[in-house]
Amino acid sequence: MSKNNTASNQINHDMMNPLEQEVDFDSVYQLERENTEDQTHTVDESHAINVDQASNEKVLSQKLSNLSCSQLRQHQNVKQSYKIPNYLSNKNECFQKLIKEVSSTIMATTTTASSTSSQNEQDLRQMAILIYRIKSEQIFQSLWITYLKSGTGQLHINQIGPSVWPTQVQTIVKQANKAADNQNDACMTLVQERLDEFKTKIQQYEIQINNLKHRLQGNKEAIFRTIETFIQQNQENFRQKIEHKIKLVQYDYNDRALELEFLRQNPSEYCIKLYKHLYDARYKQDVTREELQLVNERITYYNKTSSKLHQQVSHPTFISTIINQDAQQQLYDQLTAAVEQAKVDMLNLYVKTADIQMKNYDKQYNKELDKMFIERKQKSLPIEQQLTSIMLNLLEKRADNKKERIKCVNEFKIHCLHSNSNH
């Protein structure tokens, strides 16, 4: 197992760093605080610009009325500088071209001298920034609406289920007040206030956009839609990340709901232990199978990009000191081939090991099921120590849901992998 993990870590380190950056969802709240989508493919965040705050907008700083912890308040009351992505900066050629084209259209239809090209371009840039902020708030808003539905048992349409607050919400509340009297109320307060903040900020930005529209000449709605389309195209990566996060919240809700439904069957302690044992065995089986598929996709990606990686292979500096050019090139090629072959061997070893693990887990899970059914058939176990048909059905449903979650995560990784190779 340790060798397998080592090989996996080495593969990730050598070839998958861009992918790992793409799918880092360890802290959604931190992602929200940064208030900017990940620009891994197109933006170097060190070149992002800070927008003038003279627009008198309110920062995201409302207090949680029912949570009396200064730590959370300090965490949420941090003034956001609204780091704007590079695609909206004055240095971005595509953005500048768009602004000038729209400005030219305005000037061509202007019948008065009340506006100048410079003023129009300034207003259009400000409008673009406001649209970007609205879209960002709306995307985050959709995530927190999902949090609310999960916490109020309304995640499934026309069906009321158990209250399951996502881990992200519970973590923030616990950091705020570990001794909260009512955890459910604390979570509800946090989510409701966050949604109110989104609504307020969106309304503020819309008012500012309407003021800008009032100053502009020409077809104002067409101008707005042109800029909006540009923003949406550049935010697609960010939107997909949050949609992926929403899917995971839904899977986690289903997992907890199915677990609670099992417990409502009043299982004995032995049944609970057996249930957990079978669930863990099935999980190992599914996660290994999905991991094997993922590594095969990574191998395909590696083969496609091997020529690029070939050019990036570093070599000892002494090679450049060899006077004979033919000897220098020969040694260079030999070292490069050795590095490439080592990577191929490592990948093949990983696939072989994962395949063996998968087959072992398959046998282990099937063996446990066979044992259970034999004991039931032979009536060697008391009734209270047997999983009922309903319990087994719930076990399978929960395991299937977990499998789909694993598959969802890996498919998103593969999507990011292919997206990364296209940039």
Automatic annotation (TrEMBL):
Keywords: Coiled coil. The keyword Coiled coil applies. Residues 188-222 form a coiled coil. This is Uncharacterized protein. It comes from Rotaria magnacalcarata.
